[in-house]
């Protein structure tokens, strides 16, 4: 089979990058992905290796230690990681789209100069704290308070389910907080908190169904402190910053879905060619061949749509609706493809020594994180004017 992926937007550099990441995942990630998943283990070693490969700050300017590549290059990297292990793809996607991007897009020169060079190495992770116990889809329900006392913000509250917040490499977080001085109204602002100075506490969450080798944490603020100048962007503009950040983040979640679905199809195809029943390969049965073809059709459409959405972003055009559609559609086909792949494996797909079992679980987050499918339909509907 020709494993190359063609698309009018892919140039030689994109193809080279894909081959490089594919080789890396084969050598470094595939051999240990199952074990990390089994033990719910976040690997600092793999994270650092991904840093050496340039995957931290891939779209960030070189002056800050990044590679200044386009969004498509970034998504190809995420797609190729997810083809083997969604947890590693999630670490990279969360760090780049949610950790680095808001600092780069809304940060002052001083904030960028201070933080970005550390965050483009792979030695440090930065998190994005929007979700709270009472604020999931409803971002305006955020209760964490930040009050200005002299030269410092004092924070009290709690964030939950925060990727890259609680590992040994985690050094900070951008949080959405209520900065209003009036108890009867809210004012949302984004604040940068560095772990070593802010004095906040984190707790790693280990009992996940999905992304078990990625770090997910709870973050507690108990009179935690950030210098006044750590406000990101303007006071009162935090919700806009966080929601715009999620628009781009959705492209990377779609890329995780795409890679996961491609990896599942590859495994199912190989199994269907190898496994014989009734004297011939499973792939020779029309019902099985149809399943594989249907998967491929869905993948081709999802990939084309995602890559076209990247082009909109890279060319400064609106892409909110397209990012929502891309995530909605890709997470749906990732579910279908992982499910049909398990079907093709039969009983062999139901055991933990088969990677497809992990893929089947990992796809489940895609319809929940960074905007549930129900919320994405609201976003698309709004863009349609309904
Ligand atoms: C592994 C993992 C990593 C995560 N990483 C991060 C992170 O780094 N940073 C971060 O801030 N958050 C993170 N999250 C949180 C994630 O973004 C939220 O789980 C998600 O936004 C949904 O919120 P919720 O789980 O509270 O669900 P809820 O908002 O309680 O929704 C529950 C159900 O109700 C539906 N629903 C809610 N409101 C409506 C409505 N108006 N109309 C119709 N249906 C509705 C939802 O679609 C969903 O089906 C992570 C979550 C997980 C599991």
Q: What is the architecture of the largest domain at the second tier of CATH?
A: Up-down Bundle
Bound molecules: flavin-adenine dinucleotide
The helix content is 40-55%
Globular, elongated, flat, extended or rod-shaped: what is the shape?
globular
Query: What is the string of SSEs from the N terminus onward?
Result: HHHHHEEEEEHEEEHEEHHHH
Topology:
Layout: H1 12-38, H2 44-52, H3 71-82, H4 86-106, H5 109-119, E1 125-129, E2 145-149, E3 152-163, E4 170-178, E5 188-194, H6 195-198, E6 201-204, E7 216-227, E8 231-232, H7 238-274, E9 276-277, E10 280-281, H8 286-314, H9 320-345, H10 355-362, H11 373-383
Parallel strand pairs: 1-4
Antiparallel strand pairs: 2-3, 3-7, 4-5, 5-8, 6-7, 9-10
Helix pairs in contact: 1-3, 3-4, 3-7, 4-7, 7-8, 7-9, 7-10, 8-9, 9-10, 9-11
Structure characterization notes:
- This protein is of the alpha+beta class and 386 residues long.
- It folds into three domains: 112 residues, Orthogonal Bundle (Butyryl-Coa Dehydrogenase, subunit A, domain 1); 112 residues, Beta Barrel (Butyryl-CoA Dehydrogenase, subunit A, domain 2), CATH 2.40.110; 145 residues, Butyryl-CoA Dehydrogenase, subunit A, domain 3 (Up-down Bundle).
- It contains eleven helices and ten strands.
- The strands form three sheets. The protein has a four-stranded mixed β-sheet. Strands 2-3-7-6 form a four-stranded antiparallel β-sheet.
- Helix 4 runs antiparallel to helix 7.
- The mean pLDDT is 97.
- The structure holds flavin-adenine dinucleotide.
- Flavin-adenine dinucleotide (FAD) binds next to helix 4, strand 1, strand 3 and helix 11.
- Flavin-adenine dinucleotide binds next to helix 4, strand 1, strand 3 and helix 11.
